[in-house]
Amino acid sequence: MANRDKLSPRQQNILKYVWEYWSDSGRPPTIREIGGAVNISSTSVVNYNLNKLEERGFLEREAEVSRGLKLTDQAMNLFESARKVIRQATEMVHVPLLGDIVAGEPVHLGNEDFSTYDEEDAIDVSGAMLPGRAEKLFALRVRGNSMIDAMVNDNDIVIMQPVTEANNGDMVAVWLPMDNEMTLKYFYREGDQVRLQPANPTMKPIYVHSSNVEVQARVMMVMRQTA
Questions:
Q1: Is 44 a catalytic residue?
Q2: Among the options 8, 44, 185, 204, which is catalytic?
Q3: Is the pTM for the entire model greater than 0.85?
Q4: Whole-angstrom Cα distance, residue 189 to residue 165?
Q5: What structural domains and CATH numbers belong to the chain?
């Protein structure tokens, strides 16, 4: 199957114009209209590029007909996919803000259920910025400065993906059930222990037995908050 990468810039412009014209008017443009739109004065040059688009499977042509162009399913799928990506990128997505998480020494938060979304408290995020599927993400407001070298400051918002496992180096929200505490740190597994590493040179890492660590979520994005 042909793909758009094999088209010259001129052919891409022609194909894009044909699709836009068809979308607006419900019919294809003439050769002269195409030439005027893409700055080609010679109808033979337009014809040459239309033939190339036909060879690559993007157009069908009916000879001796003024508007005898038809976009193929391949071309329609190409532009519909692009339009879908643009629409998703420009849409604002509501990500539930579940509350605060302390980025410092662990403190008692109570046995919060961080997988329960609160529809009444949400933040709007551009779809272009969101990693993964938005319906599986939630947000927390950071309290504390233990992750400042990771560009996570007090009052920033972190977009979280619920997970139960973490790789070394992941920034995660972890629940310490034996201590009844929650914290935000870098995760490192070291034998039967886990090192929860702050990103602040003034703070020491926290070492806990792996049986006392429950990974709740992974940080996917940080939204900086300015005063």
A1: no
A2: 185
A3: no
A4: 11
A5: 4-88 (1.10.10.10), 92-223 (2.10.109.10)
185 has catalytic annotation? yes
Please pick, among 16, 146, 210, 211, the residue that the annotation labels catalytic. 146
* Nearest CA among 75, 63, 68 for reference residue 3: 75
Q: What angle do CA 125, 152, 171 make, to 5 degrees?
A: 90
Q: What is the pLDDT along the chain (227 residues), one digit of tens a residue?
A: 344 457 888 998 998 898 888 888 888 899 899 999 999 999 899 999 999 999 988 888 887 777 888 888 888 887 777 666 556 556 667 788 888 888 765 555 444 454 554 555 777 776 666 655 555 788 888 988 899 999 999 999 998 888 999 999 999 999 998 888 889 999 999 999 999 999 999 999 999 999 999 999 999 888 887 65
Is-contact 185 146, C-beta < 8 A?
A: yes
